[in-house]
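Example for tutorial group B:
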């Protein structure tokens, strides 16, 4: 039986659970789990625990994560990313890089962030995305979060790219939505890469094919 942690690089387009199912075929029936889920759209660091290491997941879980996000101005979707339907559109010509920088600086304190309706947070025992898909209107959950640090990597309207360091419970999709609303337009997430999580760095991560090769050879 295998035991330990693997720094997995999850590709975009599959869920974290699907990634586990792919790896399961190569680990000889060992128990498996992950630390900190990633949405299907997101890619990057997914710490995977195997065997005895599944009992240690709480000890390695780090409340601080690093991401690189890409967003587009001009439209907001019901999921706050490219997988949803557009619910609001607006012009964005007036938005400048310094406006984005000023707004992000204001978030470097603990503040109340509204989670996306399409999220796994529960309301009365049911996940919000399940209720949303049934057409049931729910009041979004609000959690206290902090943008610890940020760097605007690119600003070429309608696209912007930002590296962020954020607290546990932080929804990047909500951040992009709020950027649009607070800069007098709308915005949605188009790409998300988790670059650091629980002591693991994307530069040291392994794809599913890498893992298969090293385990079976």
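The residue assignment follows.
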């Amino acid at each position: 039986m295998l035991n330990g942690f693997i720094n997995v690089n999850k590709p975009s387009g599959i869920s974290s659970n699907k990634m586990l199912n792919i790896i399961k075929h190569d680990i000889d029936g060992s128990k498996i789990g992950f630390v900190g889920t990633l949405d299907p759209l997101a890619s990057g660091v997914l710490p995977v625990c195997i065997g005895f290491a599944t009992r240690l997941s709480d000890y390695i879980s780090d409340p601080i994560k690093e991401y690189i996000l890409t967003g587009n101005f001009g439209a907001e979707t019901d999921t706050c990313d490219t997988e949803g339907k557009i619910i609001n559109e607006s012009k964005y010509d007036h938005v400048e890089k310094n406006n984005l920088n000023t707004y992000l600086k204001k978030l470097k304190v603990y503040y109340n962030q509204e989670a996306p309706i399409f999220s796994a947070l529960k309301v009365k025992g049911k996940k919000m995305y399940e209720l949303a898909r049934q057409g049931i209107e729910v009041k979004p959950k609000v959690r206290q979060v902090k943008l610890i640090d940020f760097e605007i990597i690119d600003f070429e309207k309608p696209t912007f790219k930002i590296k962020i360091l954020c607290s546990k419970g932080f929804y990047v999709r909500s951040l992009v939505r709020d950027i649009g609303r607070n800069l007098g337009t709308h915005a949605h997430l188009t790409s998300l890469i988790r670059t650091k999580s629980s002591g693991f760095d994307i530069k040291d991560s392994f794809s599913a094919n890498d893992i298969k090769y090293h385990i079976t050879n």
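The two ends are 16 Å apart (CA to CA). Compare this with the pattern of hydrophobic and polar residues in the output above.
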